[in-house]
Amino acid sequence: MSQPDISQLDGRVTALEELVAALAETLAARAGGGPWWWQTLGREEAARLWQDLAEFVTYLSGRYLSGLPAEYRVAACWYRHPVAVELLTALMVAHTGAYRDPGSEPGPGLVDFHERSLWPTLERLRHLRLFSSCQDGHTDRLSTAPTTPDDGFAAHVAADLATRDEEDQ
């Protein structure tokens, strides 16, 4: 077995240094809150998360909620309720973990999502009655149709993004 020459070792050391730097960056980002902690997101990440969450709520409403009693539905003004935003974000992340892991083996992940995430979160939203008496005077619109954000969504997101740093924290 031949010994590697110095140039080969130098290349391997450089590759390892880059890998360690990338790992350190990932760990620092996680310590700062991660890609779903609203408080730490910069404008670009927050804009992306708002869009993803709006798409998820529309999907959730059409797939699961439209046939349920009104108290389980998500109002079109969901984005105006910080607790609802946090709960729906967590539910979206759980859904992503259960349904979009390309390397997952067959198992109970999808059932776990429904039993440990979806229905408890919907029950929590119902119990909290977040959409029954709004603080800023807007009117809730609970319907049987899939919920898409109302006309104020874009303005709400723009106002939120204006309060954020351009770069992620």
Terminal residue distance: 49 Å
Which structural category fits the helices and strands?
Answer: mainly alpha
The unreliable regions are 140-146
Count of helix runs: 5
Q: Can you describe this structure?
A:
- There is one protein chain.
- By secondary structure, this protein is mainly alpha-helical.
- The chain has 2 domains: 31 residues; 128 residues, no CATH class.
- The chain is 57% helix and 0% strand.
- It is built from 5 helices and no strands.
- The termini are far apart.
Give a short overview.
The chain is mainly alpha-helical. The protein has helices spanning 6-31, 43-65, 82-99, 109-128, 153-162.
Keywords:
single chain, 169 residues, mainly alpha, 2 domains, elongated
Draw up the topology in text.
Elements: H1 6-31, H2 43-65, H3 82-99, H4 109-128, H5 153-162
